[in-house]
Write a structure and sequence with these properties.
The complex is a heterodimer of chains A (362) and B (389).
Chain A: H1 2-29, H2 47-53, H3 57-68, H4 76-101, H5 109-130, H6 142-172, H7 192-197, E1 203-211, H8 215-223, E2 235-240, E3 245-251, E4 257-268, E5 272-277, E6 285-294, E7 297-306, H9 311-320, H10 325-342, H11 354-361
Antiparallel strand pairs in A: 1-7, 2-3, 3-4, 4-5, 5-6, 6-7
Chain B: E1 2-6, E2 12-16, E3 28-37, H1 39-45, E4 56-57, E5 61-69, E6 81-84, E7 87-88, H2 94-97, H3 111-118, E8 124-125, E9 142-145, E10 153-154, H4 161-164, H5 170-179, E11 188-192, H6 196-207, E12 212-217, H7 220-228, E13 232-235, H8 241-248, E14 256-259, H9 270-280, H10 289-297, E15 303-306, H11 319-324, E16 328-331, H12 336-348, E17 360-363, H13 367-375, E18 384-387
Parallel strand pairs in B: 11-12, 11-14, 12-13, 14-15, 15-16, 17-18
Antiparallel strand pairs in B: 1-2, 1-4, 3-5, 3-9, 3-18, 5-6, 6-10, 7-8
Classes of the chains: A alpha+beta (362), B alpha/beta (389).
């Protein structure tokens, strides 16, 4: 949590700076070169309010805090620091809160826009007038709404981009710690799967399916890893090598063949099977399958972790080609269920339609 | 072979297409002797069901003669005369084993599409959009039948096609609608829509012990057909349906209400034009005039049963009325496999002869004009049966 919140706070700092600049540019464009008249000038992002209401929520808030804790009213030279401080603290707190929620996620402009809209709506449109720090939002001209909104949109985007840029670096500094989201299968501390797939690294997919067949049958089928290509669409073959090592061949994105060696690191009959690629193999991957008896049948829960060819960039490209790992695993498990329950995978490939007729006519 | 193809909204054509072949071990090929146009096919014609593709073969009410079976089908052989339920069901999954055949887990090759829209996918259906599996339908000379060891039911030679054909869909659909009403002796059931499903709902309600059935429609010959089945009738264009129903039931309201109309309801009120405007501008997908009225009219603690097809979203759903009256709402695609044996017995015992509903008998070539005749309720059309051979 800390690193996400911290990156978010730093993002919020940068976002608030950018927001102040945006407000000032707007004010200049609106032809009010002499504004703002407040103590802190253009450094606390309240220019729309100063132009419209001749006061500044940050100054009012700073005064309230100062007198509230028993101090005296702040002088103008004190407000010059206190008012921006209020604004920056608010921007960084919002950024930290958001960063904690978005911990480990890549930056998306759309998320940044959402953050900006949320802070604008919750702050300037709702909380600020409710606390008496501005006049009611309903009395505000459209231009003032827009100036505040656009400044907050800039805040949101800059915050998000900076947060996203800072986060991976922080995670790399975490290397010595226990991976926060590792699975039980990563028990072997000596393996490089832990380094490559721990924490937010690599791709991790979990999915489950319930099969109306005895648990022992499903377990036995899976334990013969040679069977896996029957329903794992991207897997070409799994074959046994010497010393309990299994050789896996798969088709990656765009049909590129990828191969690796793995061994079973956990096998409890009728309960769990887990495997892990060998140290130094080209693909770092780990997986597990759990079998549970339920009232609806045998529940099969699969977790797969892998470092995709080409890293996260490769994964993003694969996604563009329609190879979403979550969807692949879901469809693979659907095939497993169909094979067990119906004995075949349903299809319409090769059935007649008027489309073939039309092609012939042309 | 010849097949009835969907070529776009309001564009139904008979085309020459390749013959079907066995694709999976549990498949069979059936030579179609009789096939009907279903009211729900009109939703396809009108473009109300998403994920149709040009060239899709229509038809989910069909019967015929087995001509070929895959190696996984042990209970059928060439020459068997069969009727085929419209939902495709594997027979082995959690849902099939609990008689919820239209909820089969394994028969929809495009389950992912349906899951996007509905959360979870129902069974594959013949000729009813790619979201529902994309299976070629039975308005054709031949049709491929998946899971043929589970779906097709052999029928005795003594019964004519027209007597058993409707066991594939509309008779079980009307029957399940009535069964969903949880009828007790003496109950009054109101049925909106006197199309084929409504007709079977009327008769099924009586089979299940209702003492009165009140049928509601606007088309005189359909109301007459409902009266022939023992129902009292209301013309929703002339009568004030709520007031009439309340009076007829001594101020209580019907014990259960059946919406046998579905997503393309017609009406004259302001909510009809509201729905119509919203569906035409793609702001909504379904028109729900009937459903709203059925909920409004139902007695306290009663049941609203929905055999009419809905596909997407409706609004102005009177959920407050349903809630404050403590209604039960039951709906869904029909679990045909569950009802077929018992309804076949009713036919064999002479309790009902489903052929009463047939008004038009034509060769397959006439399909395009018959779709229009049926949709526009011209020429007294209630049910069209087509003979491919």
């Amino acid at each position: 949590m800390m690193s996400g919140a911290f990156a978010g706070a730093l993002g919020g700092l940068a976002g608030t700076l950018a927001m102040n600049a945006t407000q000032h540019l707007w004010t200049l464009a609106a032809g009010n070169a002499d504004a703002p008249a407040s103590a802190a000038g253009a450094h606390d992002g309240r220019e729309w309010q100063e132009r419209q209401e001749h006061r500044n929520a940050n100054e009012v808030a700073a005064q309230a805090v100062s007198t509230g804790v028993g101090g005296e009213r702040l002088r103008r030279d004190e407000l010059r620091v206190a008012a921006p401080l209020v604004h920056f603290l608010f921007g960084m707190s919002a950024g930290a809160l958001y960063g904690a929620m978005a911990d480990g996620r890549r930056a998306h402009v759309a998320d940044g826009l959402g953050l900006g809209v949320a802070v604008w709506a919750a702050g300037d449109e709702l909380a600020v007038p409710l606390m008496g720090l501005s006049r009611p939002a309903t009395e505000r001209p459209l231009e003032m709404h827009l100036q505040s909104l656009s400044a907050h949109l800039v805040y949101g985007i800059v915050s998000e981009v900076v947060r996203g840029a800072l986060q991976p670096r922080m995670h790399r500094n975490d290397r010595g710690r226990t991976p926060r989201r590792g699975t039980g299968v990563l028990a072997d501390a000596g393996s490089d799967t832990r380094r490559t797939l721990g924490g937010p690294r690599g791709i991790r997919v979990t999915h489950s399916v319930t099969i109306e067949r005895p648990l022992a049958d499903v377990y036995r089928f899976w334990r013969r890893l040679e069977n896996l290509p029957e329903f794992l669409e991207h897997l070409e073959s799994v074959s046994m090598r010497d010393g309990g090592v299994w050789h896996w061949v798969a088709r990656g994105p765009a049909g590129i063949a990828v191969e690796w060696d793995a061994r079973i690191i956990n096998d409890v009959e009728n309960s769990v099977i887990a495997w892990q690629s060998l140290e130094g193999s080209r693909i770092a991957t780990a997986g597990s399958v759990r079998f549970d008896e339920t009232a609806h049948g045998t529940r099969v829960t699969v977790t797969l972790q892998y470092n995709p060819p080409g890293g996260k960039l490769g994964a993003a490209v694969a996604r563009l080609l329609g190879e979403e790992p979550r969807v692949q695993v879901r469809e693979d498990l659907r095939r497993l269920k169909q094979l067990f329950e119906a004995g075949e995978v349903p299809t319409t490939a090769g059935q007649p339609s008027g489309r073939a007729a039309r092609r012939k006519r042309r | 072979m010849k097949a009835v193809c969907w070529e776009g909204t309001n564009d139904i054509r008979v085309e020459r297409v390749p013959d079907p072949s066995l694709l999976n071990p549990r498949d069979a090929i059936v030579r179609v002797t009789s096939t009907a146009i279903c009211g729900s096919d009109l939703h396809l014609m009108d473009g109300f069901i998403p994920t149709m593709r040009r060239g899709d073969i229509l038809g989910h009410e069909f019967m015929g003669e087995v001509v070929d079976v895959g190696r996984g089908v042990g209970n059928l052989r060439a020459g068997d005369r069969v009727i085929v339920p419209f939902p495709i069901a594997c027979g082995n999954c959690y849902f099939c084993r609990r008689d919820l055949w239209a909820c089969c887990d394994n028969s929809n090759p495009n389950a992912a599409i349906a899951e996007t829209l509905y959360g979870f996918a129902g069974a594959g259906l013949y000729g009813y959009s790619h979201m529902m599996g994309g299976y070629a339908g039975g308005q054709a000379d031949y049709v491929r039948v998946p899971y043929a060891d589970v779906g097709p039911f052999k029928v005795p030679d003594g019964l004519k096609d027209e007597q058993v054909l409707f066991l594939t869909d509309i008779f079980p659909t009307g029957y399940m609608a009535a069964e969903n009403c949880n009828i007790r002796q003496g109950d009054t059931i109101a049925v909106w829509g006197c199309g084929p499903v409504g007709q079977f709902a009327v008769r099924s309600a009586f089979l299940l012990g209702a003492s009165r059935v009140i049928a509601i429609d606007t088309v005189p010959e359909r109301l007459r057909m409902a009266r022939d089945g023992g129902a009292e009738t209301l013309d929703s264009m002339r009568d004030h349906v709520f007031d009439e129903l309340r009076t007829m039931t001594g101020g209580i309201g019907p014990d259960a209400c059946i919406d046998a109309v579905g997503m393309e309801a017609h009406g004259a009120g302001i909510d009809y034009w509201y729905d119509k405007a919203k569906t035409m501008t793609l702001l909504a997908t379904d028109r729900a005039v009937t459903l709203r009225q059925a909920i409004h009219c139902c007695r306290k603690g009663g049941t609203v049963s929905i055999p009419g097809v809905y596909g997407g979203f409706v609004d102005k759903m009177p959920i407050g009325a349903a809630f404050s009256k403590g209604l039960t709402l039951k709906m869904g695609q029909t679990h045909v496999h569950k009802y077929l044996p018992r309804l076949l017995r009713h036919i064999e015992d002479g309790d009902i002869d489903p052929s009463f509903v047939v008004t038009h008998r034509v060769p397959l070539d006439k399909a395009p004009e018959m779709y229009t005749t049926f949709r526009d309720k011209q020429d007294g059309c209630v049910k069209v049966v087509m003979k491919p051979h």
